[in-house]
Design brief:
The chain has 559 residues and is an alpha+beta fold. The chain has 18 helices and 24 strands. The protein has a single domain, classed as Glycosyltransferase (Alpha/alpha barrel), CATH 1.50.10.10. The chain has a 3-stranded antiparallel β-sheet. Strands 6-9-10 form a 3-stranded antiparallel β-sheet. The structure holds 2-acetamido-2-deoxy-beta-D-glucopyranose (4 copies). The site of one 2-acetamido-2-deoxy-beta-D-glucopyranose has 3 residues, from loops. Keywords: Calcium, Disulfide bond, Glycoprotein, Glycosidase, Hydrolase, Metal-binding, Signal. One of its GO terms (biological process) is ERAD pathway. InterPro entries: 6hp_glycosidase-like_sf, Glyco_hydro_47, Glycosyl_Hydrolase_47, Seven-hairpin_glycosidases.
């Protein structure tokens, strides 16, 4: 008997609505254990260097071996590293950071200057609430300190209002001495990247205001002009609640707004469908209007777009978070069109790593889109033209600042498809970073990836510890660690427990796997008699078949 013949019986044992996102049958091999241990050791050494040379400062300067501060001096690297320590099982190391936290006064920045609402929420508040959950909800200091920060940040919503009645959107910068924000415009990402962190903080602090502020801001954005359905401009006036810059982008200033629409829906089990609906609408618009293939190599890329100035035909390392986010949303929405497109985009992002001399991708790049008459071309005869001819993109900013997004999407691709090729790509990236970014102390940014001999920069962002090392680790860890059906992961890679594992994201899909010359692809289509609702019967069987085919090869392109 073919083993799959048993599946209908096994189905009876599997609860409806379980296992929406992560592939249920991921292995945990000896090789994975070895690699995870190497990543953990690398993280430990890097953090030890930080402790030795920069303790209490925001960042470690990896070449001059001293501390420096770009996040107001509260020890950003410590706070950003805590959830990574807990994920890696480094509980003692985590405990060793608590005295620093207890001694930190988050009401006044050690370094004079304004405080970034966005960076402070994603790095500090997110790091604190995630560490609180991951350490068993027993270190109250983590919530108290997060609340101290958030009470100060709340003033960014109330400037100039009588009796502090909040307006809906925050300003970008806060002065903690005067409790006044710097007035001006606010970016889409700042207005829309706080609902995960503030929802958790309200839950654990018992003060509903934080969540209320975050939700007001998200909802205010949803009421503004959409330049295409579900796509929003880059900057807003918090005073007037109108969009002031019509650039639509998935890169800097905008990215995590879209990211949080679907992650918030995931965390709450789609309690209010407006967020996921908006995400789906935006993805649909992006698929119709912002996706292009390069004239060389057929690589799929997204483009920024403005109603006034048109398309940029550029893509960026930051925007490479998107394939992973689309894979997550495609699983929740049961949409194989989004799923396949996301995998193609993940291939493209991975290609920016495998195609450079160092094996690490650049900050941003250009391409020439198929079927567009007057798109900019690289100068004929230039090095850029040569590179475009080889790769299907040419680099516009060659620096690498230890960003995680490409590895992040490869991590999602591994956990969702189970295709081990993604692990190999992540491992190649880890080895490249270890080889080229390792510095006298910790790890350093690179001035350019377009060279055979890397030139390092005396900078090391805290997201190296929070994000890059965590995604490296989770690609090789036991797949039950930060299982994607138990956690959502913030934009700074701080895991947060889902509020419910009972999802109601609509009927089960009817995806069919068909074999195409040894390569399995997902085909969309309904199977006769598989009424989707409730997720029972034939459609669920089809989904399981889809899942249980070994070493699923769903990549639509291989490089
Ligand atoms: C924290 O700093 C503020 C502002 O300088 C000060 O008023 C407060 O007393 C400090 N708190 C502690 C516990 O030192
Ligand atoms: C909740 O937090 C807000 C914002 O800082 C504050 O104004 C309010 O007094 C707090 N409420 C309680 C009950 O502590
Ligand atoms: C899947 O998403 C695509 C792109 O947004 C959309 O056109 C299509 O209708 C969706 N399919 C289903 C079954 O919802
Ligand atoms: C987009 O541009 C067109 C043409 O300039 C203009 O008529 C339209 O109002 C713009 N749309 C939005 C939403 O601003």
């Amino acid at each position: 008997m073919h083993p799959l013949a048993l599946l209908p019986f096994l189905l009876l044992l599997i609860p409806t609505n379980a296992r929406r996102v992560q592939h249920p049958n991921l292995p945990h091999t000896a090789l994975m254990r070895t690699r995870a241990a190497e990543v953990r050791q690398t993280f430990e050494q890097a953090f030890e260097d930080y402790r030795l040379y920069a303790w209490g400062h925001d960042e470690l300067a990896p070449l001059t071996m001293r501390g420096y501060d770009t996040r107001n001096g509260w020890g950003a690297t410590i706070v950003d590293s805590m959830s990574t320590m807990l994920v890696m099982g480094l509980d003692e190391l985590f405990l060793s950071t608590l005295p620093h936290l207890e001694a930190t006064n988050f009401t006044s920045p050690p370094k004079p200057g304004t405080v970034s609402v966005f960076e402070t929420i994603i790095r500090y508040v997110g790091g604190l609430v995630s560490a609180y959950e991951l350490s068993g909800k027993k270190h109250q200091v983590l919530i108290d300190q997060a609340a101290t920060l958030a009470h100060k940040l709340a003033h960014a919503w109330t400037e100039g209002r009588e009796e502090n009645a909040p307006r809906n959107m925050p300003y970008t910068w806060m002065n903690f001495v005067t409790n006044q924000p710097e007035t001006g415009v606010v970016g889409l990402a700042t207005a829309g990247t706080n609902i995960l962190e503030f929802a958790k903080l309200s839950k654990y602090s018992g003060n509903a205001t934080f969540f209320d502020l975050a939700k007001r801001s998200m909802d205010a954005v949803l009421r503004t002009t959409q330049f295409r359905p579900g796509l929003f401009g880059e900057a807003y006036s918090p005073l007037l609640e109108i969009v002031v810059n019509d650039k639509v982008s998935f890169g800097p200033n905008s990215d995590s707004f879209y990211e949080y629409l679907i992650k918030y829906a995931h965390m709450t089990g789609n309690a209010d469908p407006v967020y996921m609906d908006t995400w789906l609408t935006g993805v649909n618009s992006a698929m119709e209007n912002m996706l292009f293939k390069s004239t060389v190599g057929d690589w799929l890329w997204l483009s920024d777009w403005s109603n006034r100035t048109g398309y940029s035909y550029q893509f960026s390392h930051l925007a490479c978070y998107l394939p992973g986010n689309w894979l997550l949303g495609a699983r929740l929405a049961h949409n194989s069109t989004i799923y396949r497109t996301a995998l193609s985009l993940a291939e493209s992002c991975a290609h920016t790593y495998s195609s450079t001399p160092l094996g690490i991708g650049p900050e941003s790049w250009h391409y020439v889109p198929v079927g567009v008459e007057y798109a900019a071309q690289p100068y004929q005869g230039s090095r850029a033209a040569e590179i475009y001819g080889e790769r299907g993109y040419w680099t516009s900013d060659a620096s690498y600042i230890l960003r995680p997004e490409v590895v992040e999407s490869m991590f999602y691709a591994w956990r969702i498809t189970g295709n081990p090729i993604w692990q190999e790509r992540v491992w190649a990236a880890f080895e490249a970073v270890r080889k080229h970014c390792k510095a006298p102390a910790g790890f350093a940014s690179l001035i350019t990836v377009e060279t055979d001999s890397p030139v390092r920069k005396d900078e090391s962002e805290s997201f190296f510890y929070a994000e890059l090392m965590k995604y490296f680790y989770l690609t090789f860890s036991d797949p039950s660690v930060i299982h994607l059906d138990k956690y959502t992961i913030t934009t700074e890679a701080h895991p947060l427990l889902l509020e419910t594992e009972q999802f109601d994201f609509g009927p089960e899909p009817a995806w069919v796997v068909t074999e195409v010359e040894g390569d399995q692809r997902v085909e969309e289509g309904r199977v006769d008699g598989c009424g989707g609702s409730g997720g029972t019967g034939m459609s669920q069987l089809m989904m399981l078949l889809d899942f249980y085919v070994p070493a699923l090869e769903r990549c639509s392109a291989t490089s």
